[in-house]
Amino acid sequence: MNAAAASEATALIIGDVQNGIVKSFGDDDGHVARVASAIEAAHLAGIQVIYVRVGFRAGYPDVSPRNRGFSAAAANNMLLADSDETQIDARIAPLEGDIVMTKRRISCFSGTDLDVVLRSRGITHLVLAGISTSGVILSTVREAADRDYALTVLSDGAKDNDEELHRVLVEKLFPRQADVITVADWVSAVEA
Question: How many Å separate Cα 154 from the centre of its chain?
Answer without folding.
Answer: 10
